[in-house]
Amino acid sequence: MSRINTNPNSLIAQRNLQANNKSLNTTLERLSTGVRVNRGKDDPAGLIASENLRAEKSALGSAINNAERADQLVNIAEGGLQELSNLLTDLRGLVTSTANNAGLSREEKQANQLQIDSILQTVDRISESTNFQGVKLLNGNFDFNTSTVATGVSDFRVNAAKVAKGSTVAVQALITKSAQTGTLFLSTGATLDLGGGGSGLFTIEVGGELGSRELSFASGTSRAQISAAINTYKDVTGVSASTFTSGAITNIRLNSTNYGSDSFVSVKTVNAGGIAGTGVGIYGANGAAATLNPSTTINSTFAAATNGVRDVGQDIVATINGVSATSKGRNIRVNTDFLDVEITLKTATATALGGVAAFTINGGGAEFQLSSKVDVGGKVALGIQNVAARKLGSSDLGFLSNLASGKSANVVDGNLEAAAKVVDESIRQVSGLRGRLGAFQRNTVGSTVRNLNVSLENSSAAESVIRDADFASETANLTRSQILSQAAQNSLSLANSQPQSALALLRG
């Protein structure tokens, strides 16, 4: 059968040729670009997934750069702090050297004071000059901004906090167990009564966390005199004494000078001396010291206390923003991924139960974006406190600037014991800051970079599976498409020549 108006075989050949040429063009495009998904129609779902992975890869790369930049910034801060540590070590040696009072002339002390003044000036200069791209690092620029500090807070430090943009963090403490000193009461009578003999001595050993001293008293010694004698050595023993009256009963109260489980008071009888009187002995606190009732809380008579009677202080127990705090004496601290704060409470607050609205964090700190997702969870905010001389130290001990000429802790005519304590506290604070920065570099930055690199590798691999061309498969498709295209061209040529057979009928 021969028809010339319609040639189905030619149409079939044309359709297949077009399809084969399209497949050939797609394969050539993939081989030339190396990409399987060049446009949405190639793989709509794959394109969406691929673009999301590309965005994630870009964010991961930026997060890695951020982490490396954070490491560089902290390196510079650490360099300044290391020099501060060296200066404070030299300063501690100068204070100890100058304390050799009888062995130094006033001129030598003044020369040491000149060195101390120079060190303090250098500390301030390092605090002001250490910078990263012009941004000062150790002058408090990267400390947290706080407000509404409670009157019951003595000192506080915000080491880290995550504060969402435009919001604040209220730091609330709830005290569930109060801080306490070691406390004992000595009932000796208004004056010592050693049985009327007058020749014996009443001898006790009073001890605390710093040491102990043996004290002897004759018959007729008053409470006030015993208290004064004990207080003479309070800087050596860590125990202070005072007369205490509850109702109609008066006695001597011994307290450790510090709060917490490391502090204690002990009394050991070396020689009772035949002490006489109603209710004399060693008593413990019955609940609050103000309700002491010696008639019911006696620990021991003096004669029976040859092995000593001891009372240990108590650390404060509290929560901060619902998290159990670690505590030492009047100091409490929490360290979580969202909040790291240290708070030292004043005595009146630390020894009472209840809530304390400590302060409010309004922002600040050194913020680093260490995650591909930009939100509060992906940020790390690190507090770098001001390390100027006027800031190192504490409200209880004083500050490093007090060691300057003319100040209360200068080494020429000032309080050298206070100076040594302030320098020790300053060394502790600088070392603690260096430790926090080092932990941030090693654990936070180091782990983050390693984790982000793994995520970047896996995201790249996932995108490659979706988007990249498989050259082995595409070259096979190329060969197939080429053969089919050539076959379709030959078939079309044959199909187009078929209608010419109709001419043979016309010749006949």
Keywords:
508 residues; alpha+beta; f41 fragment of flagellin, N-terminal domain; five-stranded antiparallel sheet; elongated
Question: In words, what does this structure look like?
Answer:
The structure is a single chain. The chain has 9 helices and 24 strands. It is α+β, with helices and mostly antiparallel strands and 508 residues long. The longest helix is centred in the N-terminal third of the chain and has 55 residues. The radius of gyration is 42 Å and the shape is elongated.
Largest sheet, in brief, is: 5 strands, antiparallel
Number of helices: 9
Distance between the termini: 16 Å
* Named CATH topology of the domain at 38-139 and 401-468: f41 fragment of flagellin, N-terminal domain
Question: What's the alpha carbon Rg, rounded to whole Å?
Answer: 42 Å
Roughly how much helix do the residues carry, as a percent range?
Answer: 40-55%
Choose one word for the global shape.
Answer: elongated
**Low-pLDDT windows of residues:** none
The CATH C-level name of the domain at 38-139 and 401-468 is Mainly Alpha
How does the SSE layout of this entry go?
Elements: H1 8-33, H2 44-98, H3 106-129, E1 131-132, E2 135-136, E3 144-147, E4 153-161, E5 169-177, E6 183-187, E7 201-207, E8 212-218, H4 223-232, H5 234-237, E9 239-246, E10 249-256, E11 264-271, E12 281-284, E13 298-300, E14 309-312, E15 317-320, E16 323-324, E17 326-328, E18 331-335, E19 339-345, H6 347-350, E20 354-364, E21 366-369, E22 379-382, E23 393-394, E24 398-399, H7 416-467, H8 471-497, H9 502-507
Antiparallel strand pairs: 1-2, 3-20, 4-19, 5-15, 5-20, 6-10, 6-12, 7-8, 7-11, 9-10, 11-14, 12-13, 15-16, 17-18, 18-19, 21-22, 23-24
Helix pairs in contact: 1-8, 2-3, 2-7
